[in-house]
Specification:
This protein is α+β, with helices and mostly antiparallel strands. It has helices spanning about 15-25, 25-30, 115-130, 160-165, 170-175, 245-265; strands at about 5-10, 35-40, 45-50, 60-65, 70-75, 80-90, 95-105, 105-110, 110, 150-155, 180, 190, 195-205, 210-215, 215-225, 230-235. It contains 6 helices and 16 strands. Helix 3 packs parallel to helix 6 (about 245-265) and helix 4 crosses helix 5.
Amino acid sequence: MNEESIRLRARLPAPIGAVRRGLIDAAALRHWLAEHAEVEPPGRYAFWGRYTPQGEEPRQRLLHLDDRTLRLSWRLGGEETIVEVLLEEESADSTVVTLSQTCSDTELAGYPMGLVLTVFWSLALGNLIDHLTGRPITPRCDHTARELRTEVPIRAPRTAVFGSLVDSAEFGRWFGIPVEIEPYAGGAWSIPDGGPIGTVREVEQGRRLSLQEDSGIATWTLADDGEGTLLTFGLSGFARDRPPYPSWTAWLSALSSLRRYHELDDWEPAWLTE
């Protein structure tokens, strides 16, 4: 069994003190991270519930907390993993967060543990950004659900939102990595550095897009909502007794980025490379 780490770095548009409060205030954690949360230093830092992998009960233990560091143990798949969150003040109103978590090459619910944790924290950090800026968070993955479907309003015209789904360059901007998409039924969509992903099943110009991949069919349906857009997004085509929660979480994280891309005048990617 090999041990490795996932590592994410993001720029949060908030002072370092506000970010720290978002990380250690139980009420805040219940808003952007988990269904249930308790924080009682020096030893108690727990989050659990339906929005957390293996969230039937709290599995965390606080190891260290100071003004710039949070470290905790999180037992997953019968193994102890270590989560570390480091805060770096970039400016008076900007903080860089580096989050890492050790993990093994084993699986959780049939998926690589590293993948499960990467998409979980990606969505969580996106929601922390929105929490800190007073924006609505993106719906979280409910690990008890059998139907994977959600609705979110986006404050942008329907044609603009749809355009960002079918234009490869624009898709890659909000998605965070280069994507190539052939926007017609039977076309391919792929990640150039990662190979083919799947096929385009359906395109209704300005209103509907369906993309197929191994874990299911992702469908985007757009309707006018005043001057904005009501986006209905769902994942289907999977065995009902084994919903692909990591894939759904990854799409929700992408949806979080898509909303900010269209709604923020000063939008820039939240994710940072080394």
